[in-house]
Amino acid sequence: MSAKTVNRRRFLETSAWAAGAVGFGCTGLAKADPERDSVQIDAPIHGAVLNRHHGKVVDGGLQIKVQGTAAAERQIVVNGVTARRDGRRFEAQIVLREHETDVLASAADLPDDRDGVRVVWDRNSRPRYRFAFDDTSFCFRDIWQQQYRSLFDCFFLGMLRDLHEKYRTKFVLNIYYTTADEFDLTRFPDRYQSEWRDNAHWLKLAFHAHADQPARPYIDAPPEQLIADFDKVRDQIYRFAGEDSYSPTTIVHWGEVRPSAWKPLADRGVKVLSGYFVRRGDDWPVSYRMDPVRAEYMSRHDALKDFPSGIVFSKIDMVVNTVPLDAIVPQLDQIGQDPNQSEIIDLMTHEQYSWPFFSHYLPDHAQRIETAIRWATERGHQPVFLHEGFLGLTG
Fold it and tell me: Of 252, 240, 233, whose CA–CA distance to 177 is shortest?
């Protein structure tokens, strides 16, 4: 059996839909093997999130191309449409009309020889961007220490307010429970609640981790440990800022958790998880321990849905603190030219690079942040919170 077959089998075995798809030939789904000429869908991939860039918008639907392989002599039917054949290759045009659609390809003369995937249609998709700050903690400690009259007397939050007023940008601060010294969130006062509430339409707070160290704290942690830390941070956000300011997590510290934690996170309201999905050697770090087949797909696409958990994964397009100021626009221009990555611009950076006392302080960090935001704004991308509606769009 080929390596491709093994990878595909392992991938499909992770799908609860594939395991229980009555009438969709779940045996055929798992046995797809190009060496035996079985029917196999190659594109779109199971879990693909498709938008106007991936097909033709028609009345009430999106017409997409389904491609795959099968024995050359077979007549292949895809969702009732007879496929065009070219040797072992087949291709059919079908129309998606629902938010999620099961796509089934089968041999007309051998019904048990079939393969299926489920795809998501981002029906109302339009260009949008989000901006998140990871590792956020210093601003909370600063406000606690200085007892400012306003949250925005803290220069960091003041910078974000200025950017919002100029560009209408929305920000999510992914926060730690503690700075690992004398401060933790239980010390943060609740007297700013009304100010948090008044700005909740553009400024949200979300769980990130218990603390900055250790690195990769949840890569092998049982889901119960992750959820306990999640609840602890969420409860403090509710206490001092109110529920309007709370956002379900979109980035867990280091982007590494057991796949068995995906569903428990979803049960806590998590809808989207963003990661790097960049291969390093044989590993895919900051990819939530996703299997290599899907991680490789995510390296080239905006989003992918995991049906058993219900979570949609988003690819982070730029970590702003890692990109020199003069390289930000060229890199974003390159992403903007790729229809598979240009619809959702997922931007993030790390709070600590804004603070002069930090060992790796970036004097131009604010300029980098504004440059990325200005690029998205000038190209017509709408600021969103990814947890609202479907990937930031509510209608």
Answer: 233
H/E element, 143: helix 138-146
**How confident is the model over 380-390, as pLDDT tens digits?**
999 999 999 99
| Parent domain of 55 | 3-121
Query: CA 302 to CA 168: how far, in whole Å?
Result: 23
N-term to C-term CA, the chain? 46
How far is residue 349's CA from residue 135's CA, in Å, rounded to a whole number? Answer: 9
Tens of pLDDT, residue by residue over 126-179, are 999 999 999 999 999 999 999 999 999 999 999 999 999 999 999 999 999 999
Residue 220 and residue 365 in one domain: yes
Burial tier of 376 (Cβ tally within 10 Å: 0-12, 13-18, 19+): buried
Q: What are the contacts of 81-90 at 24+ separation with CB within 8 A? A: 82/108, 88/37
Task: Name which of 393, 335, 324 is nearest 365 in CA terms.
Answer: 324
Residue among 343, 346, 335 nearest 386 (CA)? 346
104 and 215 assigned to the same domain: no
DSSP 392: T
Instruction: Please tell me whether residue 309 adopts helix, strand or coil conformation.
Output: coil
H helices of 201-337, where? 223-241, 262-267, 292-298, 325-336
Report the SS3 class of residue 188.
coil
Type of residue at 1:
M
Instruction: Say how many C-beta atoms besides its own lie within 10 A of residue 18's C-beta.
Output: 22
In this structure, is residue 393 part of a structural domain?
Answer: no
Q: At what angle do helices 138-146 and 155-167 cross, to 10 degrees?
A: 120
Q: Is residue 394 part of a domain?
A: no
Q: Is the pTM of this model over 0.85?
A: yes
Nearest Cα to 175, choosing from 130, 223, 234, 262?
Answer: 234
